[in-house]
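Quick review question:
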């Protein structure tokens, strides 16, 4: 699978404002359902998975969350990118009580189970790159974000 192909400009939302994680999930779910990328079971599945397997990640200069769920809830593969005007607390991956104030949400919709682990590790690699973080924080349009991710995904494949 070419990970770069999962990124689309119409799946990038910048400077979003949500009251909480539930509103974030519901809003993104509606957009994904409208585009026929997820099944109607996706919202409940992603909420449940986040409760049981938190996805918050604290990097040196940025906090993110990578919510995702089982492949059976996905119609077409995608990555939805959402930057937040005001961070939303997520529990840190691998813990049950450490909070991460997520500034960026990447919702993964992967159709192949084995590809999900690869995509997660690729994203963790990318967000560990200080140059990428700097470029990402200085980017303020959907098209620039898309180009940045596509370039980075293609580069890290090599």
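Suggested answer, residue by residue:
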């Amino acid at each position: 699978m070419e990970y770069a192909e999962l990124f689309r400009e119409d799946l990038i939302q910048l400077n979003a404002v949500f009251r909480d994680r539930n509103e974030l999930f519901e809003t993104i779910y509606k957009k994904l359902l409208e585009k026929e990328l997820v099944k109607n079971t996706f919202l409940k599945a992603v909420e449940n998975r986040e409760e049981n397997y938190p996805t918050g990640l604290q990097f040196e200069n940025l906090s993110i969350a990578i919510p995702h769920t089982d492949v059976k809830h996905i119609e077409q593969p995608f990555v939805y990118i959402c930057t937040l005007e005001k961070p939303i607390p997520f529990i840190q991956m691998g813990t049950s009580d450490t909070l991460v104030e997520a500034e960026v949400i990447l919702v993964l919709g992967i159709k192949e189970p084995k590809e999900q682990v690869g995509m997660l590790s690729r994203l963790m690699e990318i967000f560990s790159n200080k140059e990428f973080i700097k470029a990402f924080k200085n980017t303020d349009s959907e098209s620039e974000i898309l180009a940045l991710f596509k370039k980075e995904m293609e580069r890290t494949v090599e």
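Why it works: The helical segments are 21-34, 42-52, 113-127, 130-137, 142-157. The radius of gyration is 14 Å.
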